Input
Amino acid sequence: MTDTAQLTRPDPVRRPQPFIAWANAKFFESIDWYIHRRLGARKRALFADLPPHVVELGAGAGASMRYLAPGSSLLAIEPNPHTHPALRRKAARYGIDLEIREERAESTGLASASVDAVICTLVLCTVEDQAAALAEVQRILRPGGRFVFIEHVGSGPGPIRALQRLLKRPWRYVFDGCCLDRDTAATIAGAGFADVRIEHHRLGGVFVPVWPQISGVAVA
Ligand SMILES: C[S@@+](CC[C@H](N)C(=O)[O-])C[C@H]1O[C@@H](n2cnc3c(N)ncnc32)[C@H](O)[C@@H]1O
Output
């Protein structure tokens, strides 16, 4: 088995851990300003011309909403119910018409070819099965529909990769299933989209293990 195959192997479905899920919801709401500072310009550019109806996988505490046009409708696929109050607060603040579904990216329950755009930020690190989630994205997107993403990924050889390997298990526990070392770019590139554009960049700042990042657009 190749290194990449090992890194992208589906994880078993995790048992929900209520305190961790609650703490993560609070944490991501509290660092919203920081994520905005680090990723705001990139998100604004990526989300600039989204259609008026958007599906978001793992919407968390609503970090993407400030970049959507007021009046947009957002269908948030978010399995952690502790994040839902924050999602509603953000929707009210930014004038977004919000619907929340407590489903998973791997199985959204949405109709095939019914969606114009799917967005996803810092979520493919956590889904149990990336390949299944990306297959689901392609199933629900209309032909020509867009999947827009920003993800942290496994580093190439060097000190950050060593740090990711060292922290992998405790990080995964504390951050509710988040894997530091996934080769998400390769998984997206090989997922069968008609067109894929991926850019590699660095977040910088205090969260060194999640510095290596990718962002881009894949067209169904
Ligand atoms: C690191 S947080 C990112 C939240 C938000 N997208 C952001 O950028 O701040 C990961 C989110 O993915 C959600 N999540 C975990 N597993 C998921 C799955 N299988 N399908 C969809 N969302 C999932 C978590 O509940 C959490 O809200």
